[in-house]
TrEMBL record:
Residues 157-167 have a biased composition (Basic residues). It comes from Methylorubrum zatmanii. This is Urease accessory protein UreE. Residues 146-156 have a biased composition (Basic and acidic residues). Keywords: Chaperone, Cytoplasm, Nickel.
Length: 167
């Protein structure tokens, strides 16, 4: 099986033959080694020296020089907002206290869709609306040490959380 041994970041992508694309959720966008199959059928082994957080628009370089485009899969999330910046900070604290992956924006936070957490947020005065979009959770203090080192025969979602660094 051909291997993908390098990541080319979207801002450094300058040409090259894009032969396929791979659509991955936030968990599968942070890997070191994993068998993958592109949307067009290209099969390859992701085989990096260390786990890397892939983002929408990056490319994986196959050993023969061809490229596979990385696309962030839309995921079912909750978009959490609050009536003031202080109220949002409090909500972020409560979410963080539950040790769940979260993507923090300037005026909103996104977490995996969870009805219990949605009710908690609403009970604390915030809003929690379901949205479908790519998820880019914060990496956390120890993100550099987190890596997967197992092989799967196809791209799929995992039921367990992952923590990923941002660009």
């Amino acid at each position: 099986m051909i291997r993908a041994t390098r990541v080319i970041r979207r801002d450094r992508l300058s040409g090259g033959e894009i032969v396929d694309r791979i659509v991955l959720d936030s968990g599968d966008r942070h890997r070191r080694r994993m068998a993958m199959r592109g949307v067009g059928g290209t099969q390859f082994l992701l085989d990096l020296a260390e786990a890397v957080a892939l983002d929408d628009g990056d490319a994986l370089a196959l050993e023969d020089g061809r490229l596979v485009w990385v696309e962030a899969a839309p995921e079912a999330l909750l978009e959490i907002r609050a009536p003031s910046p202080l109220a949002l900070k409090r909500l972020i604290w409560h979410i963080g206290n539950r040790h769940i992956p979260a993507e923090i924006g300037a005026d909103a936070v996104w977490i995996a869709d969870d009805h219990v957490l949605a009710e908690m947020v609403r009970g604390l005065g915030g809003s929690a609306e379901p949205v479908t979009r790519p998820f880019r959770p914060e990496g956390g203090a120890y993100a550099g040490g987190h890596a997967h080192d197992h092989v799967h025969d196809h791209a799929h979602a995992h039921p367990h959380p992952h923590h990923h660094p941002h660009d």
